[in-house]
Write a structure and sequence with these properties.
mainly alpha, two-stranded antiparallel sheet, 2 strands, single chain
Length: about 140
C-alpha cells in the first residue's frame, strides 16, 4: 500500500523526473505527438504508455551517460515561487535537473539537423523543454510537432 503523503512529498521535493517527462510531452505537442516522436526511433511503439516507458528508459540512460562523462552537475535546487504546501515556509527548494543536463538530453532526443527533422523543429526542443520544466510563465514555447 502506497503512502500518498510520502508520494506527494517525494514528488514535490525530490522527483526531478516527472516534471521533466511532463515538459518533454508538452514540448512535443502533447501525448499523440509524443507517441509519434518516439515512433521515429521505435516504429513499433503501439501506444502512449509504451512511448512513456521508452522515454523513461532513454532518460535513465542519458542520466547514466551524463554522469559517466562527468559533464558537470546533474541536479540543482530551485526555489519554488510559492509557499511550502506542508510547512508554509516561503520559497521551498525543489530538486531539478540542471540546464546543462537538459541541453545534453536535447542533443540526443531532438538533435538539430537530424534527417527526420526537415522543418528544423528540433531547434525549439531544448528551449521549450527548459521553459516548461522550470515553469517560466514568461517564456514563449514554440511549436514542436
Amino acid at each position: 500500500m502506497r503512502d500518498t503523503h510520502l508520494d506527494a512529498a517525494i514528488a514535490f521535493y525530490c522527483d526531478p523526473f516527472t516534471p521533466l517527462l511532463m515538459a518533454m510531452i508538452r514540448a512535443e505537442g502533447g501525448e499523440t505527438a509524443f507517441l509519434k516522436a518516439i515512433q521515429c526511433s521505435y516504429p513499433k511503439t503501439k501506444d502512449f504508455p509504451e512511448a512513456l516507458a521508452r522515454a523513461c528508459k532513454t532518460l535513465r540512460n542519458r542520466v547514466i551517460e551524463f554522469q559517466t562523462r562527468d559533464l558537470g552537475p546533474l541536479l540543482e535546487t530551485q526555489a519554488a515561487a510559492s509557499l511550502d504546501p506542508w510547512t508554509g515556509e516561503a520559497l521551498p527548494r525543489r530538486l531539478l535537473f540542471t540546464t546543462t543536463f537538459l541541453e545534453f538530453l536535447g542533443a540526443r532526443w531532438a538533435p538539430v539537423g537530424a534527417a527526420n527533422d526537415p522543418t528544423h523543429l528540433n531547434q525549439n526542443w531544448v528551449p521549450n523543454v527548459i521553459a516548461a520544466y522550470y515553469r517560466r510563465p514568461d517564456a514563449d514555447v514554440s511549436p514542436h510537432v
